[in-house]
């Protein structure tokens, strides 16, 4: 039953309320870092995925590459990035982007590739150019898949951004790492719990997006 | 006008889709390409809007080789309807119909008001405009597909088996609608189907294709049915083609007898407005009367009326259903003489078969 006492110790500490080690500040850092990583991954992977999915080229390659990329150990990448680039944001961004990008690449590629061939044919036949077909037909068609990919990537990045603390950066990982270093288990436990809560909240946010942000014709017809 | 000038298509692997075809599709009329699957009819249709590039010969649109036109621009000037409708699932019906006007740079208001016009033209209720495609039946989706093809008022319509995926009753409705639209709009229509009934119903000119896009026959429906070019075409046309050909001949020329006098012992009874109520014969009455309208119906309907009548006489009525007169079976058969000898032979045989065995087997 000392979980509860751990939690109350953690949450009632004055440091949690104000200053650089406060929960609000750490959550802010965590979200900022995750957001940066996710944003970069989207910029890198989504346009490429859409294009590869539309042309149908290298689809097998995409799947194989992403499979390999998923096997990369994040902590190892962080260490490598620190060795190469030194301590800094990029040391954490690189592995986080490497985590998110493959998920997004596959989602974009497969989402576009799954467009009903009759629909694509009709769109071409009534006079849409290739870029117009991609933008007006395939991208809307791929939206549910893209959103699902974004959700997976976001949850993974938020959970994994904890490693930033290993290379001296902020975020919720601070509590976990600092707690372990000082054998302050309430702090480790509290930090871990916050990471879980943040990941679950993200999951819920995307469920809402999926429900309300998709055009009705896509939601209903594609389950 | 479309002209196929030695147009052929050979796939990269060497298989031939269309060997080499010369064909003229006249402007303002409906030309139907009909043939078994794999005869290259869809390939030919898709050569016109460059969805397929011929590997030999040319396709000329009003004298211009389509290969010289920019594909997207060319296609925006041609209505295109396919079997699965191909509507954009994420767009409402109204915006689906307005797709080509949007592409052509019309402003939103003009495009949408045009789309509303078309919705009405193809027989859909105005409230359909706000629906999504998945909320429509197959037949309604096809109507939207036709409306979308007509939105920018193109002179030419390409229709690739547009009604094949809907059930027969809905299909008949859509065919009726297309005939009505075509009577009003006079587009150049190139229509592909594997269904000879549909071809006969819709076509002004029918092109029967064999494998590799070889032409079996080019003819108007009546000629096709009464005088197929050879055994193979006749076989494709199927049984009863003589009888079906009657469905293309007007029933206006049949000699009528006055309705008041008895015929073969049967008298037609009418109500006070002159509409037929039944047949009264020796010791029995028949309550059903099958009628035809001379100005509107065909010889097939007239023959049907004669065959179903206990008096062996067809009942001619005006558009209000009032009796104009009786047409004896012999008079109906005489009218067939104008329909060509083959039709007469086929119909006489079929007619005797149905009617000769003692009338309605009640």
From TrEMBL, chain A:
One of the GO biological process terms = transmembrane transport
What sections of the protein cross the membrane? 37-55, 67-86, 92-112, 153-177, 189-214
InterPro entries given in the database record: ABC_transp_perm/SBD, MetI-like, MetI-like_sf
Q: Which domain of life is it from?
A: Bacteria
Give the membrane topology, semicolon-separated if more than one. Multi-pass membrane protein
Keywords for this protein: Membrane, Transmembrane, Transmembrane helix, Transport
Does Metal-binding appear among the keywords? Answer: no
Carries keyword Transmembrane? yes
Q: Residues in domain ABC transmembrane type-1? A: 27-206
Q: What is its main location?
A: membrane
Query: Which PROSITE patterns has this protein been placed in?
Result: ABC_TM1 (PS50928)
A Pfam family (short name) is BPD_transp_1
Q: Where in the cell does this protein reside?
A: Cell membrane; Membrane
Sorted alphabetically, the Gene Ontology cellular component annotations on this record are: plasma membrane
Similarity section: Belongs to the binding-protein-dependent transport system permease family.
What's the protein name?
A: ABC transporter permease
* Organism, as annotated: Streptomyces tateyamensis
From TrEMBL, chain B:
Q: EC?
A: 7.6.2.9
Q: Which GO terms describe its molecular function?
A: ABC-type quaternary ammonium compound transporting activity; ATP binding; ATP hydrolysis activity
| The keyword Repeat appears for this protein | no
Classification via Pfam families: ABC_tran
- Positions in coiled-coil regions: none
Q: Tell me the enzyme class.
A: translocase
The molecule here is called: ABC-type quaternary amine transporter
- Annotated source species: Streptomyces tateyamensis
């Amino acid at each position: 039953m000392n979980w509860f006492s751990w939690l109350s110790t953690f949450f009632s500490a004055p440091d949690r309320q104000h200053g650089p080690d406060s929960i609000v500040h750490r959550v802010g850092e965590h979200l900022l870092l995750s957001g940066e990583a996710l944003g970069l991954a989207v910029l890198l992977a989504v346009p490429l995925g859409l294009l590869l999915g539309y042309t149908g080229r290298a689809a097998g390659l995409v799947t194989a590459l992403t499979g390999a990329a998923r096997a990369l150990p994040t902590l190892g990448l962080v260490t490598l990035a620190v060795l190469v680039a030194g301590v800094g944001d990029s040391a954490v961004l690189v592995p986080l982007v490497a985590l998110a990008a493959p998920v997004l690449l596959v989602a974009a590629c497969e989402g576009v590739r799954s467009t009903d061939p009759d629909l694509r044919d009709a769109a071409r036949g009534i006079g849409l150019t290739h870029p117009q077909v991609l933008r007006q037909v395939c991208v809307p068609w791929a939206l549910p898949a893209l959103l699902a990919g974004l959700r997976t990537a976001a949850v993974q990045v938020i959970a994994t951004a904890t490693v930033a603390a290993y290379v001296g950066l902020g975020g919720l990982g601070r509590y976990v790492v600092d707690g372990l270093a000082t054998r302050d288990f309430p702090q480790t436990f509290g930090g871990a719990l916050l990471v879980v809560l943040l990941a679950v909240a993200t999951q819920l946010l995307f469920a809402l997006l999926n429900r309300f942000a998709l055009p009705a014709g896509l939601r209903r017809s594609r389950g | 006008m479309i002209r196929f000038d030695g147009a052929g298509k050979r796939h990269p692997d060497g298989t031939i889709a269309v060997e080499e075809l010369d064909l003229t599709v006249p402007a303002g009329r409906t030309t139907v390409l009909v043939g078994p699957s794999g005869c290259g009819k869809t390939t030919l249709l898709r050569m016109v809007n460059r969805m397929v590039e011929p590997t030999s010969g040319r396709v000329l649109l009003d004298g211009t080789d389509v290969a010289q036109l920019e594909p997207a621009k060319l296609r925006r000037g041609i209505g295109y309807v396919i079997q699965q409708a191909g509507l954009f699932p994420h767009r409402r019906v109204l915006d689906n119909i307005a797709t080509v006007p949007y592409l052509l740079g019309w402003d939103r208001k003009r495009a949408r008001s045009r789309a509303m016009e078309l919705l009405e033209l193809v027989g859909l209720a105005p409230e359909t405009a706000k629906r999504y495609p998945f909320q429509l039946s197959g037949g309604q989706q096809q109507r939207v597909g036709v409306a979308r093809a007509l939105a920018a008022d193109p002179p030419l319509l390409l229709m690739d088996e547009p009604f094949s995926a809907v059930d027969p009753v809905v299909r008949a409705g859509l065919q009726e609608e297309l005939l009505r639209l075509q009577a009003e709009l006079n587009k150049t229509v190139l229509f592909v189907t594997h269904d000879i009934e549909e071809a006969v119903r819709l076509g002004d000119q029918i092109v029967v294709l064999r494998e590799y896009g070889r032409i079996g026959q080019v003819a108007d429906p009546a000629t096709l049915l009464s005088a197929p070019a050879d055994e193979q075409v006749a076989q494709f046309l199927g049984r009863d083609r003589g009888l079906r050909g009657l469905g293309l001949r007007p029933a206006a020329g049949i000699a009528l007898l006055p309705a008041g006098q008895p015929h073969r012992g049967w008298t037609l009874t009418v109500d006070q407005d002159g509409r037929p109520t039944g047949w009264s014969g020796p010791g029995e009455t028949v309550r059903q009367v099958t009628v035809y309208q001379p100005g509107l119906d065909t010889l097939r309907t007239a023959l049907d009326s004669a065959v179903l009548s206990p008096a062996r006489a067809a009942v001619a009525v005006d558009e209000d259903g009032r009796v104009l007169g009786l047409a004896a079976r012999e008079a109906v058969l005489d009218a067939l003489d104008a329909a060509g000898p083959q039709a007469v032979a086929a119909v006489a045989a079929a007619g005797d078969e149905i009617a000769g065995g003692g009338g309605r087997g009640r």
